[in-house]
Amino acid sequence: KAPVEAPVLRSMLLASIWLKTGGYGMLKMCIMYVITFTKELISVYLFMVLMATMLCLLQSDLMKFVAYSSVTHMTMLLILLFSEYITFENGSIFLMISHGVISNTLFFMVGVNSFSSLSRLLFKQDNNMMYSPKLWYTCMIILFLNAGSPPSVALV
Predict the structure, then answer these.
(1) What is the mean pLDDT of residues 61-85?
(2) Domains: count for the chain
(3) Are 108 and 142 in contact (CB under 8 A)?
(4) What domain range includes position 19?
(5) pTM of the model
(6) DSSP readout, 65-120?
(7) What local confidence, expressed as pLDDT, does residue 47 receive?
(8) Nearest to residue 141, comparing CAs of 152, 130, 154?
């Protein structure tokens, strides 16, 4: 709820800096401590990813869509951290970097679109697509990168 109701700049700071600080802290905690119930945690986190993805698909508010996709990315980070493989720890760092860039850009794009259309709702964005197609093509490329398509670091 915090990224949705906050101003765009605060949402960008949350996605790019504050969540990465928590992710790095979790990385250090997972290195220091051995957690015995990792399989149960991973199954709970996979269920959370599935539910956040379903909530993403049902959203008409663009800011909520970006917030739920951010939750999905950070939950995937937890799955990588609790998998107990050294290469997954390196992959989690790459995932944090890609999430910081992609979510930050998505929040910025939603802010630009909502400023020009005076609404965050998806079905009220049709005039923006006709008046600024380059902006919408850029949004589509960033959404593909958010989904973890091959040129993206989020493919990890």
Answers:
(1) 83
(2) 1
(3) no
(4) 2-155
(5) 0.80
(6) HHHHHHHHHHHHHHHHHTT--HHHHHHHHHHHHHHHHHHHHHHHHHHHHHHHHS--
(7) 92
(8) 152
- Check if the beta carbon of residue 3 is closer than 8 Å to that of residue 67: yes
The residue written with tokens 């290195």 in the block is 31
Percent of the chain with pLDDT over 70: 88
* SS3 call for 8: helix
pLDDT level of residue 144 (50, 70, 90 thresholds): confident
pLDDT band at 11 (very low <50, low <70, confident <90, very high): confident
Token couple for 108: 């910025």
Only one residue has tokens 């790459």, namely 94
Could you tell me the pLDDT band of residue 34, with boundaries at 50, 70 and 90? low
Q: How far is it, in rounded angstroms, from Cα 53 to Cα 51?
A: 5
Measured distance CA(48)–CA(42) in Å, rounded: 10
Alpha carbon of 116 to those of 8, 131, 137: distances in Å?
14, 10, 16
The confidence band for 4, taking pLDDT boundaries of 50, 70 and 90, is low
Rounded CA gap, 44 and 38, in Å? 10
- 149 — alpha (psi -120 to 50), left (phi > 0) or beta? beta
Alpha-carbon distance of 92 to 122, in angstroms, equals 31
